[in-house]
C-alpha cells in the first residue's frame, strides 16, 4: 500500500470518527438542558408526544440542535473557504467583516423598511454579506502588492468595526426594536423551530454543494494564481464560485442565528492538523467540526448559567480566542 493510500485511509477513519462524535454530541444536546429529562421522555418526544414537561422540553431542543448543527457546519465550511480563497490564515466571516455586513443589512431592513418575512431576512443578509466581501476585497487590493493577507485582515477588521458602529447608530433611535436586535446581535440558536429553519435550508444546501464542488479549485488556487492558470484553471471563476458559496453560507446563517464569531477561524485550523491543506478533505472535516463545536458550545451555555442560559455567540467568543492562540503557539499549523 502506498503512502498516499495510507494517508487517505487514515483521513477516512478520522472522518468516520468525527461523524460518530457528532452523533454523540447531538444526542447530548437533546438530553441536557435546564431541566433534566429521562430516556423515556426523549423517546416519547422523538415520536411526537409532548404531553409531559420533559417531553415538551425535548421537543424544543430537537430543532435547536438541528439549527446548531446546520449553522456550525455552515460557519466552519465558510471559514475554510475564505482562508483558501484569500490564502489568509486569519480569514473568517467575522474578521473579514462579512458577518457584520449581513447584520447591518438586516438591521437596516428591519428599522427602515419594516422587514418581517423570513425570506426577506435571508436575501437581505446574503446581499449584505456579499457587499461587505466585495468592499473588503476592494479596499484590501489597493496599493502595491494587491490583496495581501495582512491588508485583507486589516480592511476586514476596520470594516467590521465600522459596520458594528453603524448598527448601533441605526438601532439607537428605535427603542421598539432595540431589545430584539441586541439579543439577535449576540448570536444564538435558542428559540429555534422547524418553521424558522425551513426557509433557510435551500440556501444552506446550495452553499454546501457549491463549497464541496470548489474543493479541487481551492487546491489549485493554493499553488498561486499563475500556476493555477498554467494548470488550466480559470482563477477568477474559481475564486468567485468559492467566495459565493461562503457568502451564501454566512449570510443565511447570520439571518437565522445572528453573527457568531470565531467558529470559522478556529475550526479550519483544528481540522488542518488532521487533514493537511487538501481541501477535498478539509472542507468536509470543517463542516463536521463546526457543527460539533457549535453544539458543544450551546450545551456549555445551558450548563454554565443554570437556570438561565448563555447564548452560543458568547461561548464561542470566550472559548474561541484562547483556543486559537493555543493552536498558533503550541501546534505546527500548516501554511496555506
Task: Please characterize this protein's 3D structure.
Pfam families: FecCD. One of its GO terms (molecular function) is transmembrane transporter activity. It contains 15 helices and no strands. The protein has about 325 residues and is mostly helical. It has one domain (about 70-330): ABC transporter involved in vitamin B12 uptake, BtuC. Helix 2 (about 40-45) crosses helix 3 (about 55-85). The longest helix is centred in the first third of the chain and has 34 residues, at about 55-85.
CATH topology: ABC transporter involved in vitamin B12 uptake, BtuC
- The N- to C-terminal Cα distance equals 28 Å
Instruction: Give the SSE order as H and E letters.
Output: HHHHHHHHHHHHHHH
What's the architecture, going by CATH?
A: Orthogonal Bundle
The CATH class is: Mainly Alpha
User: Beta-strand percentage?
Assistant: under 5%
CATH superfamily heading? ABC transporter involved in vitamin B12 uptake, BtuC
How many domain units?
A: 1
Transmembrane segments: 12-32, 65-82, 94-113, 119-140, 152-172, 197-215, 236-261, 281-300, 312-329
GO biological process, one term: siderophore-iron import into cell
Main location: membrane
Membrane topology: Multi-pass membrane protein
Explain the layout of strands and helices.
Elements: H1 3-31, H2 39-46, H3 53-86, H4 98-113, H5 118-140, H6 149-171, H7 175-186, H8 194-197, H9 201-213, H10 215-221, H11 225-230, H12 235-257, H13 263-275, H14 279-304, H15 312-330
Short overview:
By secondary structure, the protein is an all-alpha fold. Helix content is 76%, strand content 0%. The protein has one domain: ABC transporter involved in vitamin B12 uptake, BtuC.
Amino acid at each position: 500500500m502506498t503512502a498516499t493510500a495510507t494517508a487517505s485511509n487514515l483521513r477516512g477513519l478520522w472522518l468516520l470518527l468525527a461523524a460518530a462524535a457528532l452523533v454523540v454530541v447531538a444526542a447530548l444536546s437533546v438530553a441536557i438542558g435546564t431541566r433534566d429529562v429521562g430516556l423515556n421522555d426523549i423517546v416519547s418526544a422523538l415520536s411526537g408526544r409532548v404531553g409531559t414537561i420533559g417531553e415538551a422540553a425535548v421537543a424544543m431542543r430537537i430543532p435547536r440542535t438541528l439549527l446548531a448543527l446546520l449553522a456550525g457546519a455552515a460557519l466552519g465550511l465558510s471559514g475554510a473557504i475564505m482562508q483558501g480563497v484569500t490564502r489568509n490564515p486569519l480569514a473568517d466571516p467575522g474578521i473579514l467583516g462579512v458577518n457584520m455586513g449581513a447584520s447591518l443589512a438586516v438591521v437596516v431592513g428591519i428599522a427602515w423598511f419594516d422587514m418581517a418575512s423570513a425570506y426577506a431576512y435571508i436575501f437581505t443578509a446574503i446581499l449584505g454579506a456579499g457587499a461587505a466581501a466585495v468592499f473588503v476585497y476592494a479596499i484590501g487590493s489597493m496599493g502595491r502588492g494587491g490583496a495581501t493577507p495582512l491588508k485583507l485582515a486589516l480592511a476586514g477588521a476596520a470594516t467590521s468595526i465600522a459596520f458594528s458602529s453603524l448598527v448601533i447608530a441605526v438601532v439607537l433611535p428605535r427603542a421598539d426594536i432595540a431589545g430584539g436586535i441586541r439579543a439577535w446581535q449576540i448570536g444564538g440558536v435558542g428559540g429555534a423551530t422547524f418553521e424558522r429553519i425551513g426557509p433557510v435550508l435551500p440556501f444552506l444546501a446550495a452553499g454546501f454543494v457549491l463549497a464541496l464542488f470548489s474543493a479541487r479549485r481551492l487546491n489549485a488556487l493554493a499553488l498561486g494564481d499563475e500556476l493555477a492558470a498554467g494548470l488550466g484553471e480559470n482563477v477568477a471563476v474559481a475564486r468567485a464560485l468559492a467566495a459565493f458559496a461562503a457568502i451564501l453560507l454566512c449570510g443565511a446563517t447570520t439571518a437565522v442565528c445572528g453573527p457568531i464569531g470565531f467558529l470559522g477561524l478556529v475550526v479550519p485550523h483544528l481540522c488542518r492538523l488532521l487533514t493537511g491543506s487538501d481541501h477535498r478533505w478539509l472542507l468536509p472535516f470543517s463542516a463536521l467540526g463546526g457543527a460539533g463545536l457549535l453544539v458543544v458550545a450551546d450545551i456549555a451555555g445551558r450548563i454554565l448559567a443554570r437556570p438561565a442560559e448563555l447564548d452560543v455567540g458568547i461561548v464561542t467568543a470566550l472559548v474561541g480566542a484562547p483556543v486559537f492562540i493555543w493552536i498558533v503557539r503550541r501546534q505546527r499549523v500548516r501554511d496555506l
